[in-house]
Amino acid sequence: MTSNAPFLSRERIVAPMNYNRWLVPPAALCVHLCIGQAYAFSVFNLPMTKLIGISESAPEDWTLTALGWIFSIAIVFLGLSAAFAGSWLDRVGPRKAMFLAAACFGGGFIISALGIWAHQLWVVYLGYGVLGGCGLGIGYISPVKTLITWFPDRPGMATGMAIMGFGGGAFIASPLSVFLMRHFSSETHVGVAETFVALGVIYFIFMSIGALIVRVPAANWKPAGYVAPSAQKKMITDQVVHVDEALKTPQFYLLWWALCLNVTAGIGVLGQASAMSQEMFQGRITPVAAAGFVGLLSLFNMLGRFFWASTSDIIGRKNTYYCFFLLGIVLYALVPSTAHMGSIGLFVACYAIILSMYGGGFSTIPAYLRDIFGVQFVGAIHGRLLTAWSAAGVLGPVLVNYIRQYQIDHGVAKADAYTVTMYIMAGLLFIGFLCNLAVKAVNERHYLKLQNQPA
Amino acid sequence: MSNEQESGTHGVQLIVTWLLVGIPLLWGVLQTLQNAWKLFE
Q1: Is the pLDDT of residue A414 over 80?
Q2: Of B6, B21, B37, which is closest to A292 when you measure between CB atoms?
């Protein structure tokens, strides 16, 4: 370790050769457990429509539609910042990137609190949406390459652990936010601004701890007993493709669409899960039970991130994505039948597996990119690929909502309005299957020449 | 620092860092499971 190197530099955090690599995943989890809060942002929506009216919305209060933009802006800036910061991150190392993510995400909450106090919605858009969104994007990609380098024998499991944290962050944020709002609220005050300040400080500290404990391996470090496979597998390269060159390959766009379509199908039903369960099982699933159903789906979303990414280390990334698409097609096609059969258990089981594969898509993609393009620029390439998430974030909910409304407007009963949606989602997954099928090893002409490879 | 001392330090660090992230996550998962149970009541 070079002690006189700048505190946030990569050189400062090079680990000694006998460093225990299992100390690194908690550093990644410190960041991902915090930024996973984004999935729980909706807990603020209703209280933020009553900032002036307190017990009910006043005419000057913000509307749900206007508030909905906060999350959308954050997801767009997640994708943009991940795309633009990826190359910078590969240069400066994970500590500086994690610290910047902590400052952006924590700072986003503080600025939003000011916006709430001043009742200026554009300040909240700027705070949580733009600044917080940048914190989300930089924080999301910052530990990925580090983990892949520490776990060359199990890259899927390693990134799966961190990205599982992103899925799990909502479990912490949701009850914590409700607790804080209750604590800070009074008869004349809903307590959202104070909750934002508290969360901003808590998340900044927790993410900074991650930045402090993260380490990168020394140049020639290998795990004890690890021998790189002598016979190179066809779909796993030991070469390097530069991030700019990766964008010129069909593989990048095929994987972009594979991720986009998998996420579109998952995000579309996740957003509608509560309403869908109540409408498909009218009178049998209450709003309270539906909330429990959504929580259960989020749990499978989180567990799937670890399970599928770890499985991909054994069966391969391409086969794992085949599982997502083929199993997904069967399950989406089966969902309407479970409703007709009146089987809540089967309905829940189908959705649980679907959501596990939605999460699995996110967590398996970094290792898939590493296999195809090599480890050197995987952070930057992963960052650019995450624009697929931003696109799916718009496409999925729009598709589900539009198709459902179209069905209802044409006289289809609410309970049956999701049938066509499910079949269309299965169709999208079939296209995703074809994209995955077309992924082959990168042509040798795209490989970085040895003399150009950075040290 | 000797190798034995270093591995001892790593052992303590390992427990502390995993508890740091494990406890909040477990708490959140338990809260979620409590709510999810209402689906089957």
Answers
A1: no
A2: B37
